[in-house]
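Recap for those who missed Tuesday's class. We walked through two folding examples back to back. For each one, the amino acid string is listed first and its predicted structure tokens come directly after. Nothing is annotated here on purpose, so try labeling regions yourself before you check the end of the notes.
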Amino acid sequence: MDYEFPRYLAAKKTVDDRALNKDVWRQLRQEIPDQPDILEIGAGIGTMVERLVAEGGVVNGRYTAIDNQPANIDTARSRLSNLPPNLSLTLEAIDVFDFVTREQGKRAWDVLIAHAFLDLMDIPTALPILLSLLKPGGLCYFTINFDGVTSFEPAIEPELDALIEQLYHQTMDERMTNGRLSGDSRSGRHLFAHLSQNNIEILAAGSSDWVVFASKDGYPTDEAYFLHFIIHFFEQALHDHSQLDAAQFQAWLEQRHAQIEAGELVYIAHQIDFLGRKI
């Protein structure tokens, strides 16, 4: 199977649509200005822009969406060609910290969005830098922040399943990017303290769990591909791990892929959404 990240992000959209906390989303819609200036970091292929236009009523203002992967931005440019004419969209492939360095002190935004992104960073270091781009009184909408629970059903070997999940979470906590820590397997619960320490009033918070399963007609839309990609993430993260028998792990991967093909795999991941205001 070819693993293409833009297709994974497209397949993930319906999973996210179900998962996003409806109370937090409703509060965002109530609080967002009529003509907002929005910045989204790690914007991927633009699915949050689509969602805000279709369901959030954002039809005026300016939207800046950045991502460090040019292929994602190219896909977003194709997907977002028919936005409302009064919504100005800027797409850019750039590293978020390079963007902050360029824009800090020159411009600030009404709304800062990070969707399924903050748990890929060292939040204590990154959060104050990111929030420096937000106007006083501005909103931050931080969604799908992983919070330490992964579950695959049915079990293959319970002890092996538990070990693989534990080691996978550990790779999040130990991940290094450009010489610095870049992850937290319990970022969701930790964000309560991180936001408060950075003068963010939490307006709403709630769970945004991924729950993916097949009906009698199979998995919805392209969600089987999404599941195959999740198993691929496990393979990439734990390849040649010293605490796993290589043959046993390979057999586990193959069984999980086979369960997806048979429409048997149920996947659950616990996450938390936040809406905050900069004090």
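Example two. Treat it independently of the first, because the proteins are unrelated.
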Amino acid sequence: MNSGERFLAACRNQPVDRPPVWLMRQAGRYLPEYQQVRSTSDFMAMCHTPELACELTLQPIRRFGMDAAIIFSDILVVAEAMGMDLSYGESGPALAPAVRSRSAFSRLRPFQPERELAYVGDAIRLAREQLAPEIPLIGFAGAPFTLASYMMEGSSGKDRVATRELLYRDPALVHDLLEQLSASVAQFLAFQVKCGAVVVQLFDSCAGILAPGDYEQFALPYARKVIEQLRPLRVPVILFVEGIGGILEKVRESGADVLSVDFRIRLADVRRRVGSEVALQGNLDPAEMFGPPERIRRRVEELLAETQGRGHVFNLGHGVHPRTPLEGVHAFVQAVKALGG
């Protein structure tokens, strides 16, 4: 099997010769070639410039030979397309004005991905032209709840106090925002597929702050709406929910083809709880790649034993840490290729 056949088959829970491997945030700050581009461009310029985004997408494939590429972009470009000011500083992203009132919500505008996010489509087309034909390209977006949380917070604050406050003080406003976002995210992902993505991933990295009942009310229905709207395109959908362990059975109800699992739960336990009809992705702790190659190889063997190689995409349980040594990434990718076959 080539990389594309292997990756798509694994996402569809079909037999493979070995599990495929790619990494969340594989195009990023740990790469010296990324740092070289970053030295002459700010982060938003890299996202907005198709040629730069294409180059950053291809860099980890050239160096490590993962089975799939993911387009270089940012989940918050949707908020920017809706009219919010987006900037990045030392403390992370800033969105203004924060959506904490009905008047702030009313200032958000509907958008057409072909217009406001055309640069993402152009980057996908360029990457598709330059990637080897057998390497699949992943598109992505933030899930509605995670986007809503960033928009309500106006930043990436860990405590998410503004989000929690609005959930209980003005749930109608939150639901209106989530409704608008679910339509926008679905349109954006469909646009990415039209431009050349063959798999899409929804990142719900903020959903882990929610109690199970609140996840069922504020996150799950809107992720499910996005996934349902993508069904006619017949592309696999991966859903990443950080903190999935406590809400695993509910996340299973999203309709996602692949559940991307963080590193706080064993894949064997996930398989036992969700059954065999859904594929799994993950879930090496990113910190493991600071260890020696023999430890990384042993952890790959353990993950392979937990999944028995069926319906599994090797990945991390979160994104690559900026300080990750190149040797660790190389050891992980090579161990999957050597031990999985």
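Answers for example two:
The CA atoms of residues 3 and 128 lie 14 Å apart.
Residues 171-195 form the longest helix (25 residues).
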